[in-house]
UniProtKB/TrEMBL annotation:
Name of the featured protein: GrpB family protein
Pfam families in the record: GrpB
Coiled-coil annotated residue ranges, if any: none
Organism: Clostridium brassicae
Species classification: Bacteria, Bacillati, Bacillota, Clostridia, Eubacteriales
InterPro entries assigned to the protein according to its UniProt record, in alphabetical order: GrpB/CoaE, NT_sf
Transmembrane segments: none
UniProt-listed SUPFAM superfamilies: Nucleotidyltransferase
Length: 177
């Protein structure tokens, strides 16, 4: 069955050490395409937090010099299988996904200095440093994936309050480090 006739299924799986390897491998391909713009590439999202359940989608946070130059890389990234989605609901971002219904990678591109960079990195680092809360997050995601198996909006809405609480804690934690 081709992807156009499919429904996106929300799947949450056990942590896999291969996610880090996949991040490193794919980072090199992304770097090759946007080399002149990239300042840093970070592994974010649940696949970057060892030991927790996650959707098996590798999230990249790409920090760039000038967000306005990123659209000129859409064609080159499409050759790697990425679909350009523009800002996709977050002002100042460029978002790319690989696979519509069987997603494997997301690229979130932000210009250096954008507050979303710090928020994502604080969340990741806080969760790594607080494994009990990370495990609670993984368990919540497992429950939501069962309840909202074909409803990405319901799944995301179910995580929203937890994420906002962790964002707040992670911000305070980052200031005390």
């Amino acid at each position: 069955m081709d992807e156009q006739n499919q429904v996106r299924v929300i799947e949450v799986v056990e942590y896999s050490p291969s996610w880090k390897e996949e991040f490193i491998k794919e980072s090199k391909l992304i770097q090759d395409v946007m080399d002149n713009e990239i300042l840093k590439i970070h592994h974010i999202g649940s696949t970057s937090i060892p030991g927790i359940f996650a959707k098996p989608i590798i999230d990249f946070l790409v920090e760039v010099k000038d967000i306005n130059n990123i659209d000129m890389y859409n064609d080159d990234l499409s050759k790697l299988g990425y679909i350009a989605k523009g800002e996709y609901g977050i002002k100042g971002r460029r978002f790319f996904l690989k696979g519509l219904y069987h997603r494997t990678h997301h690229i979130h591109v932000f210009e250096t200095g954008n507050s979303e960079i710090e928020r994502h990195l604080n969340f990741r680092d806080y969760m790594i440093d607080h494994p009990e809360e990370a495990n609670n997050y993984g368990e919540l995601k497992k429950e939501l994936a069962i309840k909202f198996r074909y409803d990405i909006d319901g799944y995301c809405d179910g995580k929203d309050a937890f994420i906002k609480d962790i964002d707040r804690k992670a911000y305070e934690w980052s200031k005390s480090r």
